[in-house]
């Protein structure tokens, strides 16, 4: 046999494998999802290669995954006819080159409580999950550009690679797991079928399971001679065909076991189906399958774009923030899988949608794009621009609907109360407004959108939410703000500051509170910057309460009262003097607001007689 070369795992990969192999994690079955997903990825890759290189599939025509097990050897084998790995790929991808997610994953898993191991796929290290159930793993792989090689490791900090003289794969990868003592459940075909079905539901390649089926067959006459005598048999046949008083009189049967490949999944693309025929649960599990996320999506939109460019798409908002969300905002694209005529072109097309929507996940499937060009050329294609615009519009529509749904859910609260009965209180606490859930996770993206996307700014503005002086635990939108404005109020007020406590206690807020005017709290560093791009909403100007020259709609009254008071005090010596001078001839001497150029004016008091009346009365005097 060819000599094996031994390699040390890269240090972080080693730590990762230690964690996995010693894990007490219960949900070990997730390894199958990872292996199937790698097979599917590899199949997508060869299908893409075949677009420009017709001969690529000559090494093996069928694109498929096959799963089999051997109870005696305690092995589980998963084979795909994907792109395969060269020797160099095996060495690099399975052990010596650590991915960026490796360290993150090790950190996430090594807390006191341990972490959720099923997130492994998200960190780009899903392959190693095979060591949850196996103490030795062998990978045989054939890539079109190399000879077939074998990789093997018992997770003892090293792995071996050698040229494989075993059965020819044609093309693709075969992974054999030597199952641990406690992993016997994966040698059970019903269990496997259940898992394969669960994890392959949305895989668009056929997945076969090698399984046995039992069949009851009638035993031929000559085989049962020893069981019965011929006379009795003849009687049976003369009487009736299907009713027997005595079991012994039934036709002799035996069970035979047939082993055969049986396709488990349906390969149908969920996005190609009519939205009205897809259940919520199907969207949720599809989302989890392709995104490798473990949480349900917050919301989604499934649509068919028509017109200039036709495509089908499902967009999702994740239920949790991806671990690398803001690591490198400017390098992170939305994870949209782009299919052109069923061929996966890429799962992260650069700039298909603007950066601020990079939390989106989904699929886009179009027949309108040329297949036979490089990704780079495709990138420049004008169709993509149109597609991107539609995707943005749909994404914003989805968010708008989510926000509206939240609002109408509030209205329905009473009905819900009745239906849900006793557990209500708990329910209510547990279930948060879905839009606010979105907002708390991805609100920053919307604010970035306000800055970056002037074309959609007004739509985005409606998606903004703020804490305010009257919002309590909740949030206010601009629409709600405007609805709650005082009759006389002309502007939308906000205060920017470090945090809610700081702005809440700001002296600038005193007057607004006294007037019952709502003030939006801009306490995210990006808020003030974003708000520069939103100068008004619904015709109402945005105004900071800390700026000089703060005006309320009703300030004439307020300001005048203030001014009067000030003048009164300043001129008190003069008015006192004049009152003394005129004595009883006048009721009072006061400062007037009504004169502009005339120095003095004699008026009657509000409650006294008018001057005209005085004149009349004097004429009648006795
Ligand atoms: P990810 O799938 O996120 O890249 P994995 O740890 O699951 O991370 O796999 C690591 C790498 O190993 C893959 O990126 C791929 O290059 C290679 N690989 C794993 N399984 C296969 C396979 N069945 N066929 C081809 N390459 C594979
Ligand atoms: Mg993977």
Task: Give a quick set of tags describing it.
622 residues, alpha+beta, 5-stranded mixed sheet, 20 helices, 18% strand, elongated, binds adenosine-5'-diphosphate, binds magnesium ion, signal, Histidine kinase/HSP90-like ATPase domain-containing protein, ATP hydrolysis activity, ATP-dependent protein folding chaperone, chaperone
Question: If you had to describe this structure to a student in words, what would you say it looks like?
Answer:
This protein has 622 residues and is α+β, with helices and mostly antiparallel strands. Helix content is 36%, strand content 18%. The protein has helices at 11-21, 30-52, 87-96, 100-109, 189-200, 230-239, 280-291, 375-379, 382-411, 413-420, 424-430, 434-452, 457-463, 478-483, 500-504, 508-515, 525-531, 555-570, 572-582, 611-619; strands at 5-8, 65-70, 75-80, 134-142, 149-153, 158-163, 172-179, 207-218, 253-263, 299-305, 311-317, 335-340, 343-346, 361-366, 467-468, 492-496, 519-522, 536-537, 540-544. The chain has a nine-stranded mixed β-sheet with strand order 1-6-5-4-7-3-2-8-9, with helices on one face. The protein has a five-stranded mixed β-sheet with strand order 10-11-14-12-13, with helices on both faces. Strand 5 and strand 6 (158-163) form a beta hairpin. Helix 2 (30-52) crosses helix 5. Residues 413-429 have low confidence and may be disordered. The structure holds adenosine-5'-diphosphate and magnesium ion (MG). The site of magnesium ion has 6 residues, from helix 2. Magnesium ion binds at residues 34, 37-38, 121, 126-127. Residues 217-249, 408-430 have a biased composition (Acidic residues). Residues 215-258, 403-431 are annotated as: Disordered. It comes from Pelagomonas calceolata.
